[in-house]
Amino acid sequence: MSAPALDQIKFGTDGWRARIAAEFTFHNVARVAQGVADYAAERWDLRRPVVIGYDHRFGSDDFALCVARVLAGNGISCRLTADPAPTPAIAYAAGIMPAAGAVIVTASHNPPADNGIKLRDPTGAALPPSQLQLVETAIAERAGEYSAVSELDAGRDPRIEMFDPAPEYLESLASAFDLADLAQVGPFVVDSMFGSGAGYLERAFARAGVDPRLIEVRGERNPRFPGLSRPEPIPPHCRVGQDAVNGNSAAVGILNDGDGDRLGIVDENGAFVDQLRVMSLLAWGVLTDPLTAGPVVRTLTTSAMLDALGNRYRQPVYETGVGMKFVAPKMLEVGAALGGEESGGYVFARHMPERDGMFSGLAFLQLMRRRSARPSELVEQLFEELGRRYHYARNDLQFDASARSRILDRVQNWQPGHLIGQQVVARLSEDGYKHVLADGSWVLIRFSGTEPLLRVYGEAPSQDDLAALLAQGRQAAGV
């Protein structure tokens, strides 16, 4: 099958994402599936099935079936989730099945009008950029043509088999943690943001025979994501979770995004704990446990606290570009114990080479229990250990597409010698433009890999210094 109108399909920070019914159409989804089929024929072990899963968004089930029809039309066996499932459960299924790889229909934390496709390798890890480029090339070379079994035949095609990834995934959570102990943390809130991870933590505790004091909010399926411009576990989208923590006198709030692979934390006072502090706390837990200690991989948008922790506990810390497509391969290369990114995605090697918001949430509860501390107390304990405070923020700036080249020129040519009274000691340009200061503070300017946004990130020892640093970054970009 083919169609004359073709859009160029590019994979961003984590997959291909586009507006439903505009660029994200059945024809374009079929094109992507055909590209995956051609790529898989050369590089995946197709004696194994390809896992296909999907989230709670509009049409995700039908788009996932479209992928299955194309793969089956190319002679590839598929295991299609019978119901929506979070990305971590789908990736985990691929790794233990074992599968040839995985295709996940999700737009993660994007606005409700978007959908997308993520690709995972046989271990459940994100494909590195070099492999994604091969998929893009395979899509383009087909010039819009694809092979697919008919909708009528799909229901009885033996190459398309339905399955439930939940049992094995939930068992992995129950076996990785002492859930009876974690339940003693006190009442805690889970805000699933209407995403496909809804109910999973409660089911994990139930599977372990534990009745936690768990209060779930926004746990139903609603593809409109009411009250949310996007299901992303950062302010301003976490107000419902914050209110639930305060209203229930909860010890902590665990927030997950639209496909369950990201974690946000709300402390016992209803205050949001930023992602850089959360990753640093999780790293602290990993590095101080002799059973899990090992190297750490972080994106360049994460905290200098991680470098300080690595030095303190004599473990190397590796920096990568933004996205799991950089983090996961680097973790496998260096044998890292933990990897993560500023967006709230954290990877624990003892679990699988894919970020998991629910596993990360349980790891945070574990840290609370081990240190007998509430979230705000954990942050203060960490600052005390490191001997200084760290403050972080990110500004997301909209811009006219016609201004992109002008903005890029300005950012490329910005080479300050000093910022906020500190000497600039390094300028990195691997992914955007990052200026590192003598005291460890930094500012980064980069274009989003998934949305038409310019992002200015910063970390500094005080709120005033942070505000000044971000203002200088915005001024340099002219946005």
Question: Could you characterize what this model shows?
Answer:
With 479 residues, this protein is an alpha/beta fold. The chain has 4 domains: 16-164, 3-Layer(aba) Sandwich (Alpha-D-Glucose-1,6-Bisphosphate, Chain A, domain 3), CATH 3.40.120.10; 165-273 and 357-362, Alpha-D-Glucose-1,6-Bisphosphate, Chain A, domain 3, CATH 3.40.120; 274-355, 3-Layer(aba) Sandwich (Alpha-D-Glucose-1,6-Bisphosphate, Chain A, domain 3), CATH 3.40.120.10; 391-477, Alpha-D-phosphohexomutase, C-terminal domain (TATA-Binding Protein), CATH 3.30.310.50. The chain is 37% helix and 20% strand. The chain is built from 16 helices and 21 strands. The strands form 4 sheets. It has a 6-stranded mixed β-sheet with strand order 1-5-4-2-3-6, with helices on both faces. A 6-stranded antiparallel β-sheet has the order 16-21-20-19-18-17, covered by helices on one side. The protein has a 5-stranded mixed β-sheet with strand order 8-7-9-10-11. A hairpin with a 6-residue loop joins strand 9 and strand 10. Helix 1 (26-43) crosses helix 2 (60-73) and helix 1 packs across helix 4 (129-141). The longest helix has 18 residues, at 26-43. The chain starts with 15 loop residues before the first strand and ends with a helix.
What is the CATH C-level name of the largest domain?
Alpha Beta
Find the structural class using helix and strand composition: alpha/beta
Strand content: 15-25%
Overall mean pLDDT score? 95
Please mark out the parts with pLDDT under 50 across 5 or more consecutive residues, or reply none: none
Strand order of the largest sheet: 1-5-4-2-3-6
Query: Biggest β-sheet: count, sense, barrel?
Result: 6 strands, mixed
The name of the CATH topology of the largest domain is Alpha-D-Glucose-1,6-Bisphosphate, Chain A, domain 3
Total domain modules = 4
Number of helices: 16
How many DSSP E strands?
21
Shape: globular
